[in-house]
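User: I'm curious whether this sequence folds into something compact or stays loose and floppy. Could you predict its structure so I can see for myself?
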Amino acid sequence: MFTSWLQHPLTLRGRLVELRPLEKETLDELFHVASDPEIWRLTSVDYSDPAIFYPNFELALSDRALGKAYPFLMCLADSGRVIGTTRLLDMQPQDKKVEIGVTWMARECWGSGINMEGKQLLLEHCFDTLEVNRVQFRAKADNARSRRALEKIGATFEGVMRQDKMEPGGRPRDTAFYSIVRAEWPDVYARLAAQLATRR
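Assistant: Here's the prediction. I'll summarize afterward.
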């Protein structure tokens, strides 16, 4: 089922954003975006620290080689400028499910529709090409901005897993889980298309 996904490189193109494969030689350009500390104010991980950023994204490249994840650069469709990243991870072909996460972008792109279109491109690939039954999302439970973004695309809130993981500073983190399942995809797609039509 996942044969087509594992064919690298994979690029997904939209009107606002283009998702390109992350490569080692593009890490410095992505780190330039990550160097804005305001991006990380509500998150568990601060990628403006190079000691955190580079090992994490080098591991993502290793995970891609193992077929466990696929990290993308988010680029402006008109200029090609790198403005952030997103990732497919926790790929489980035997259970027909995958997670979308590690999504962040430059502040000037917040509220622009770029995140929404990026999610649409990934969801289309997951449901229509990979034929998964479930796409999962996670957010830090107290990160209202991330949770609003997931609800806006039509993901269903499933609950909070208390003390789900440890944050880098040593504090336990509660995680909010969201998902979209196959039966919901047509309605979610229509909702995304209608919202993106207003971003012209």
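Summary: The CA atoms of residues 36 and 200 lie 28 Å apart. The two ends are 35 Å apart (CA to CA).
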